[in-house]
Amino acid sequence: MDVKRLTEMRKKNLLSALFLGLIFIAFFAVCSMINYSDGDDAFFLNTISKHSSFSDFVVYLTGTMNGRIGATMILWIVFSRSIWIWRILNALVMTAYVYFMSRTVCLINREITILNATIISAGSFGIMSIGVLGYSCLWITGSINYLWPLTFAFIGLQPIISTLFYARRISYLEILVCSVFGLFSCIMQEQIAAVMLGITVAASFAVGFCKRRMPLYQLIMLFLILCAIIWLLLCPVTRERSVKEIAKWFPEYSSLSFGQHFFVTIQWMAHSLAHDLRYAMLIISSFIAVSLIRTNRKILSAFSWLLSIICIVPAMLPKFKDVGLENLNFAKKVVHTPKITDLTQIQLIHIVIVLFFY
Question: Could you give the C-alpha distances from 304 to 57, 110, 125, 220, in angstroms and in order?
Answer without folding.
Answer: 52, 22, 24, 39
